Amino acid sequence: MTVASSSPPSRLPLTGAEHLVPTKGAKARARGDGALAAVFIAPAMLGFLVFLCWPTIRGIWLSFTRFNLLTPAEWVGLDNYIRMVNDPIFWSSLGVTVEYVVINIGVQTVSALAIAVLLQRLTQSSLLRGIVLTPYLMSNVVAGLVWLWILDTQLGIGNEIITAIGFDRIPFLADETWAIPTIALINVWRHVGYTALLLFAGLQAIPNDMYEAAKVDGASEWRMFWRITMPLLRPVLAVVLIMTVIGSFQVFDTVAVTTAGGPANATNVLQYYIYGSAFGRFQFGYASAMSVALLVVLSAITVLQYRLTRAGQSDLG
């Protein structure tokens, strides 16, 4: 008669579900990683709360008050918004701003896209990319002053060249017709290189195999641009458009150093009008109301752009 051995039972392998159960050590490491991440995020979060969230909340509150820095804020309800709706200068400034945005975005997007495609299809030289980005390294104030001197009606080298080839001098920044297009093109000159590099980065994500297959099928460069480049670049282009539209609506410094809102309010963009109301006439409540209106307009435009351009979706499978 044999006696069964009393050896210990063999260890059964863990099932898939048991593998997913975190151990105490893993939980401790996760808590440590979370604490470390919070330490790194804390300075940026503090800056976000102090310099963005709090001013925004306070600005919304001030928009319902009459405030001039010298006396305590007085609650006036919707008076500032009613005044804004009936203010012809506000609507004129909004119209001027929209004109600037249309010119700036149209010219800048087309130019940046052309530069990005040329950089991607013809050359990827780091030197050329650096040259393209050079104007962006200059501040808006410096760029505005440089172009103010270049385009000066009497002494500017730009008008000297125009007269040398037989044309009359053009008052680029002193004429109501020329002023806003000129300011828009100055900002296009400064920002187009940065926008082009953003689009160039998006082009790098498009596989070269698609272009090679299209060439084998006999597709021209123009056809490849419309059939391959534009559809696959759409998410990046949409984000770039959202960023540039928001930035264009906030134009201020170029106007401040070149035309100061003139001539005859022809360049009195909304941001400059808000600044003048707050720091020129000390109407901080009314300026806050216009700022809130601008915030609402930009939020609506951003949401609309995001939905129409399907910025969160990609055609790359």
From TrEMBL:
<feature type="transmembrane region" description="Helical">
    <location>
        <begin position="131"/>
        <end position="150"/>
    </location>
</feature>
<protein>
    <submittedName>
        <fullName>Sugar ABC transporter permease</fullName>
    </submittedName>
</protein>
<keyword id="KW-0812">Transmembrane</keyword>
<keyword id="KW-0472">Membrane</keyword>
<dbReference type="InterPro" id="IPR000515">
    <property type="entry name" value="MetI-like"/>
</dbReference>
<dbReference type="GO" id="GO:0055085">
    <property type="term" value="P:transmembrane transport"/>
</dbReference>
<dbReference type="GO" id="GO:0005886">
    <property type="term" value="C:plasma membrane"/>
</dbReference>
<feature type="transmembrane region" description="Helical">
    <location>
        <begin position="232"/>
        <end position="252"/>
    </location>
</feature>
<keyword id="KW-1133">Transmembrane helix</keyword>
<feature type="domain" description="ABC transmembrane type-1">
    <location>
        <begin position="94"/>
        <end position="305"/>
    </location>
</feature>
<keyword id="KW-0813">Transport</keyword>
<feature type="transmembrane region" description="Helical">
    <location>
        <begin position="284"/>
        <end position="304"/>
    </location>
</feature>
<comment type="similarity">
    <text>Belongs to the binding-protein-dependent transport system permease family.</text>
</comment>
<dbReference type="InterPro" id="IPR035906">
    <property type="entry name" value="MetI-like_sf"/>
</dbReference>
<feature type="transmembrane region" description="Helical">
    <location>
        <begin position="100"/>
        <end position="119"/>
    </location>
</feature>
<keyword id="KW-1003">Cell membrane</keyword>
<feature type="transmembrane region" description="Helical">
    <location>
        <begin position="34"/>
        <end position="57"/>
    </location>
</feature>
<dbReference type="InterPro" id="IPR051393">
    <property type="entry name" value="ABC_transporter_permease"/>
</dbReference>
<dbReference type="Pfam" id="PF00528">
    <property type="entry name" value="BPD_transp_1"/>
</dbReference>
<feature type="transmembrane region" description="Helical">
    <location>
        <begin position="178"/>
        <end position="201"/>
    </location>
</feature>
